[in-house]
UniProtKB/TrEMBL annotation:
The keyword Transport is assigned to this record: yes
PROSITE patterns: PROKAR_LIPOPROTEIN (PS51257)
Pfam families documented for this protein: SBP_bac_1
Signal peptide interval: 1-23
Main location group: other
Family: Belongs to the bacterial solute-binding protein 1 family.
Keyword annotations from UniProtKB, A to Z: Signal, Transport
Region (Disordered): 32-63
Keyword check for Transferase: no
Organism: Cohnella yongneupensis
UniProt feature, compositional bias: Low complexity: 32-61
Protein name as catalogued: ABC transporter substrate-binding protein
Subcellular locations according to the entry: Cell envelope
InterPro entries associated with the record: Bact_solute-bd_prot1 (IPR050490), SBP (IPR006059)
Length: 462
């Protein structure tokens, strides 16, 4: 009840603001938003070239009155995918409402207040909060009767991070894999061969040292938050110090970030800055004009990348680059992937049509288009698996690394964890790795507080 009252309060505030703005005659139709780091820019000269849209089943309602769906999304590069969807369902068009760093719940409330409710949204915090506020539609009945969803094979446990009490409330919009990007020119300049796909974390550190040449303004690692955000907790799993990404335990109820072995993992990465000098902290990186903050500038050897960086690298990089899987640890070689939740909004006036956008994500044409952008497939299908070797995205690149990353990927947790938005592992990591005065004593009290908080929230849900 508290969550529902909170959303009602947000809605009432937005209503008041809307009335005030209307009275003042104000307005802002600027839809140019910045993409989220987890969004994946996409390019496609011919969006219909990947597959024949007629190859996938479709649920075509008898009523084909023209409908415009309002889609809340970080993406500003999905137009080719919208075109594929429109080709399949000519009476349905999609209008994107950009996030622009605004909390999505506030956007939903504002659109409701204006009488123009959104139909579909990406999720920016734990899915439980959206479900508890009554914002998202339960999808199980739609999935059970949809020809497309019933015709595809999904990986085991596919909906585990999208279901509450056995009911499905979202589908993954995209499976975003992560790799380590490699500047092959910088390797060659320092007399180094391309690392093997079974390289270790010790190898990773040594390569980074050997590619560091401060006099030339060259460093082993790009100064970016992704190292602690993606690689560090993956290393903790690889070495057996955590059970899941982001230092979570086996049942995702508690963080293990404050345990001694994990703290030592964090100190290990901090030494790239404080001891090895193979990565600069934020302040020193800024002092050098920010060149080492972007891998595409060619001044760094390694970076963490996902599908969102690939099109720009392919078109603009002035050096040879490739990809590697995350290194092997003492126990295993896990990778890292993100499922971006896509939900049907309870306030939609076009729910049948809106669900077609959700189910369309699992058609062969949509899956192939996403592979063309560097994303992973979300369905189990021989044709789709074979398409990985045909896509222009990976021609001439370390395709085996792409396969390893897909096979070994662990899914970033969060959408089903109560209080996830209050978990400051990312902020702590940024301060400890690339901050000016890292203080490792802040870990224990912060994690103890959050572990208590998430258990309280979990208990309140029962």
């Amino acid at each position: 009840m508290k969550n529902k009252r909170s959303f009602a309060w947000v809605l009432s505030i937005v209503l008041i603001m809307t009335l005030v703005l209307s009275a003042c005659g104000g307005g802002n139709n600027n839809n140019n938003g910045n993409a989220s780091p987890s969004a994946s820019p996409s390019t496609s000269a011919d969006p219909s070239a990947s597959a024949d849209p007629s190859a996938s089943p479709s649920a075509a309602p008898e009523d084909q009155t023209p409908v415009e769906l309002n889609f809340i999304s970080w993406k500003d590069t999905y137009n080719p995918l919208y075109d594929l969807f429109h080709k399949k369902y000519p009476w349905i068009t999609i209008k994107q409402t950009p996030v622009n760093s605004q909390p999505i719940m506030e956007i939903i409330a504002a659109l409701e207040a204006a009488g123009t409710p959104a139909d579909v949204t990406e999720i920016d915090q734990d899915l439980i909060a959206f479900q508890q506020n009554g914002l998202v539609e339960e999808l199980t009945p739609y999935i059970d009767s949809d020809p497309t969803m019933q015709s595809v094979t999904l990986p085991n446990g596919f909906f585990d991070t999208m279901a509450i009490g056995g009911k499905k409330y979202a589908v993954p919009m995209v499976d975003v894999p992560m790799w380590i990007l490699v500047n092959k020119d910088l390797l060659a300049k320092n007399g180094l061969e391309m690392p093997p796909n079974d390289w270790t974390y010790d190898d990773f550190r040594e390569y980074a040292k050997k590619m560091t040449n401060p006099d030339a303004g060259e460093y082993g690692l790009t100064t970016q938050p992704e190292w602690q955000m993606r690689l560090l907790s993956t290393k903790a799993v690889a070495d057996g110090h955590a059970d899941n990404l982001w230092y979570m335990n086996a049942d995702l109820t508690q963080s293990r970030m404050a345990e001694p072995d994990v703290i030592n993992d964090i100190k290990w990465l901090s030494e790239f800055v404080t001891k090895d000098g193979s990565m600069l902290n934020n302040t020193k990186a800024s002092e050098q004009g920010g060149l080492v903050n972007e891998f595409i500038n060619g001044k760094t050897g390694f970076a963490i990348g996902g599908d969102w960086v690939l099109p720009k690298l392919k078109s603009d990089a002035k050096f040879e680059w490739d990809v590697l899987p995350f290194p092997k640890g003492k126990v295993k070689q896990p990778g890292y992937t993100i499922y971006g939740p896509l939900a049907l909004l309870a306030g939609s006036k076009h729910k049948k049509e809106a669900f077609l956008w959700l189910s369309f994500q699992f058609t062969k044409e949509a899956q192939m288009w996403k592979i063309d952008q560097g994303a992973n497939a979300s369905i189990v299908d021989g044709d789709i698996d074979a398409y990985y070797q045909k896509t222009p995205m990976w021609q001439g690149k370390n395709f085996e690394a792409v396969q390893i990353a897909k096979k070994n990927a662990m899914i970033m947790p969060g959408v089903m964890i109560p209080g996830w938005s209050e978990y400051d592992a990312n902020g702590i990591g940024n301060r400890l790795i690339t901050g000016d005065e890292p203080d490792f004593s802040e870990i224990a009290p912060a994690i103890e507080k959050w572990n208590k908080r998430t258990l309280e929230l979990r208990a309140a849900l029962k």
